[in-house]
Amino acid sequence: MSIDLFDVEQLVLSEVAEPPLASQAAEARDRVWDMAVQANPGLWDGPVVACGGLDWPGPRVLHLYWVRVTYRHYALRRVPGANALPSVFVNVIQPTEASGVLVARMSPSTAAPGRWQLPGGSVEPPRTGASLDASVLAGQAARELAEEVGVSVASDDLRLWVTTRGEHGSLGLTYLAPALPESTVREAFSTVSATERSRGREPELDDITFVRSPNDLTGLYGPHADYLEPITRRFFTRD
């Protein structure tokens, strides 16, 4: 599967309306979604941001046209003849002082059980009337890192490092966090996982590890996010 990586120094965002959907396609989408929920009751039809279009108004300047949808929208990928908008997500490269990179595995109850990936998640839309801008996206990336791994970092300390286009045209915004001792990250993950379980909730991530080269990924059993190898390779071969 081909993954495209782009360097972005400036991100511009504009909200646009969701394209109209034929009633037959909407009904088929809902049937697919209902079947998915029956198979995995943990699925949640919450609000998310989809990609309504992209353009490049200048060198390393990305203009993202975004659309308010819910997770159910992506059931259209399994409806013949229907066109689902690409998803938009943020994730974080958390390096260690020992030159490793954190990689995490999704829990069995998630939409991608057992998948190895970077900490992150789908972009959520702001409340009606509020803006979605680069600072808000960095804040969402920081929140994902804190919620999933237990590592707290100020959004101003995250740098948009690379963007990816992958499966179904999905747009990934990858942020680079300051390096931390590996022991600090492991302790933070252990604490946040224990806290979630004490509240009767399964953590979104059930394991973490640290890779020191792209070749280390081959030792991780299970599916890998499509962006994982290209991003880690870019990280370890950067100047």
Please characterize this protein's 3D structure.
By secondary structure, the protein is an alpha+beta fold. It has a single domain, classed as Nucleoside Triphosphate Pyrophosphohydrolase, CATH 3.90.79.10. 25% of the residues lie in helices and 28% in strands. It has four helices and eleven strands, in the order ββαββββββαββαβα. The strands form three sheets. Strands 1-9-10-5-8 form a five-stranded mixed beta sheet, covered by helices on one side. The longest helix is centred in the N-terminal third of the chain and has 17 residues. The chain is globular, with a radius of gyration of 18 Å. The two termini are 26 Å apart.
